[in-house]
Design goal:
The chain is an alpha/beta fold. The chain folds into two domains: about 220 residues, Alpha-Beta Complex (inorganic pyrophosphatase (n-terminal core)); about 120 residues, Roll (Diaminopimelate Epimerase, Chain A, domain 1), CATH 3.10.310. It contains 13 helices and 14 strands. The radius of gyration is 20 Å and the shape is globular. The chain starts with a helix and ends with a helix. Belongs to the PPase class C family. Prune subfamily. InterPro entries: DDH_dom, DHH_sf, DHHA2, DHHA2_dom_sf.
Length: about 350
């Protein structure tokens, strides 16, 4: 049994030891695939670093489990993710084709809501879900392998899966896993960070052979902050998800940066693009949070009266010049969406 499993999760060590045979833990990961055809591994639309790296890493994990799998993507890569893949010399996943046959086996990583996933997901056969978000609307006709944990990053869960199954994590996979944890937790600045994330990162450092984690995180965040040549639509959709509140759809985007002044210079064009996005997709509302990674500060753009009303009441803040200062609320998952859900629940 892997030493990290014993050290981090002693409560399950005896159970795993009991079922440990031929240097491999029995795993139900293999029980849900009905054929030898390729399983498609997907992160969410408008993918961030965790979504892309999780797809690459989980497909590697499945192949080590003798399951045919391939990573795909549902959107363009941001500059941070491009920097990471270029540094470790890994090709970006192919864009998912439009003509995926009905019934194709799909593994979802870093999401479990249909509106954040591929089109026609309901016509596919979802076999695996590895995620760290709240349960969404996903339903399946057959039992599936599902692993959702309240941690800061999907990469933390994936590392546990390798360890529990006594599988090798090579340097490139370790590099991707570390980079995803740093990205999703804002190098442990985010309130989503857990002790598991910290311990897993510590375990991965010698495997990834990264000499200076702080320097690597800084380079990642600087790459993410470089928006030169990006259109306002590209910036808005860099890390953008849709949510249903009282059966009405809202778009919530975030832009993480080391230079919030540069992003603020594009406020007017971003507000215009937010209006266009609302019309294009018949949204009830739309918000875009500019997150200062270093100062841990959130300035959220408010395009219309309806968003202003909701944000005033949900967060108890004032709005000036279409900007709401949401203070240190830097996590959409843990600080923004729950507050909005609570507000809309009161209105229902």
């Amino acid at each position: 049994m892997n030493t990290i499993t014993k050290r981090l999760f002693p409560s399950i060590s005896k159970f795993l030891l009991k079922y440990h045979v031929n240097n491999r833990t029995f795993s139900s990961v293999k029980n849900v695939s009905n054929n030898n055809k390729e399983i498609i591994v997907l992160g969410h639309r408008n993918p961030d670093t965790d979504a892309i790296t999780a797809a690459i890493v989980y497909s590697d994990f499945l192949r080590q489990m003798n399951i045919n799998a391939k990573a795909y993507r549902l959107g363009d890569l941001n500059n941070e993710t491009k920097f990471i893949l270029k540094t470790i010399d890994i090709k970006e996943p192919e864009m998912l084709p439009d003509n995926i046959p009905n019934g194709t086996e799909i593994a979802l990583v870093d999401h479990n809501e249909s509106q954040q996933s591929m089109k026609n997901l309901n016509k596919m056969r979802v076999t695996h879900v590895i995620d760290h978000h709240k349960l969404g609307d996903l339903t399946t006709s057959d039992p599936i392998y599902i692993r959702i944990e309240p941690v800061g990053c999907t990469a933390t869960i994936l590392t546990k899966l390798y360890c529990e199954n006594n599988l090798n994590i090579d340097q490139k996979m370790a590099f991707l896993l570390i980079s995803a944890i740093l990205s999703d937790t804002l190098h442990f600045r985010s309130p989503t960070t857990t002790n598991d994330d910290r311990k897993i990162l510590e375990y991965l450092i010698p495997l990834a052979k990264i000499d200076d984690i702080t320097s690597h995180a800084k380079q990642m965040f600087e790459a993410k902050s470089d928006l030169q040549g990006f259109s306002s639509q590209q910036i808005l959709l860099l890390d953008y998800k849709t949510y249903s509140f009282n059966n009405e759809t809202w778009g919530i985007g975030t832009g993480e940066t080391c230079n919030i002044k540069k992003m603020l210079e594009r406020k007017d064009e971003l507000l215009k693009e937010m209006h266009e996005e609302k019309k294009r997709n018949n949204l009830k509302g739309i918000l875009f949070s500019m997150i200062d990674i270093i100062k841990e500060k959130n300035l959220t753009l408010i395009p219309d009266d309806i968003e202003e009303k909701v944000v005033r009441q949900a967060f108890k803040v004032d709005i000036k010049n279409h900007i709401a200062d949401l203070g240190s609320r830097v996590s959409r998952k843990k600080q923004i969406i729950p507050a909005l859900e609570e507000y809309f629940h009161r209105q229902s």
